[in-house]
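Read as chain and fold; for instance:
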Amino acid sequence: MKFSYFLLLWFSITGFSQELTLEQANHLAGLPLKCLQQEYPNKLGQMLVDSTEIQSPQKLHPSFYGCFDWHSSVHGHWSLVYLLKRFPNLANKELIIQKLKANLSKVNIQAEMDYLNKKHEKSFERTYGWNWLLKLQLELETYNEPFAQELAQNLKPLSNIILERYIEFLPKLLYPVRVGTHSNTAFGLTFAWDYAVYSKNELFQKSIKENAVRLFQKDENCPFTWEPSGTDFLSPCLEEMALMQRILPKTEFLSWLKKFAPQLFKKKFTWEVARVSDRTDGHLVHLDGLNFSRAWNLYALINQYPKEFSHLKPLTDFHLNFSLSSVVDGNYEGEHWLASFALRAFEEKK
């Protein structure tokens, strides 16, 4: 069993491109482009107070109605902006820009704000969708093209609502959520922190840091052997690590990590990839996303602290490459969101 694992690891390292190519970028862009304005199938995370609220997904969420659900639509938009920024010769460039401009118009964003401002929707997409929205906001603000700057301004009022909700909510969260799915607390603060730092929002940074320290600083010996659970697409251990890596200075972080995840310091550390038994099952296919999210967190660790963690690079490459071919396998269950996770891993790979 161990021999076959390391054989797979060797083929993964030697058989795949180590950088995101234009051909791969075009394939990955095609997935959110295809679903960005595809209304059905759709899963609404809606609470109904009466029958007047029963409306179509596009009516409820004119910006983020495609790609099956709100948060997948948000990170589908992020994927396209990310690829446009890095590949000037991306295929269908004008069509992508056209769809982005249509979805992220001022009128549509106002409708999204109206929805979030309903009294009974204060927890809508908390905090997974919130986190991705601020990732999209950051990508637009750092894209030096006129259309992107316009869309950043359109989106900003919605992002400001999310920002305020974070600051209001975090002190109320007495205990963190440690699952490997949407409600994971640590993941929900990572992109939010990145945006808080970029935007020099000291109040937001203070809120995230104080609450992250309160919730996670005393944690020790994260149970890596408990991962994955059946439908994880996030690693509870690595997401917590990624958050603390952001907010703590080097000496303090490495000291914390030695108590939290001592196995990562071992030169022979191995971690089997997550395997999917049925990629037509919308929950089971989450495990491909887990391989990508593990990869992006490990790449970030390696890049910031190469002296301590460069030995993790082959394992991390293997996680990325193991699920990469499955992103474009033709099954909508994975196609509507997995491209974003693969691109996020490539973003950290650098």
Remarks:
- The chain is about 60% helix and 0% strand.
- Confidence is low (pLDDT under 50) at residues 1-17.
- Residues 185 and 257 are 18 Å apart (CA to CA).
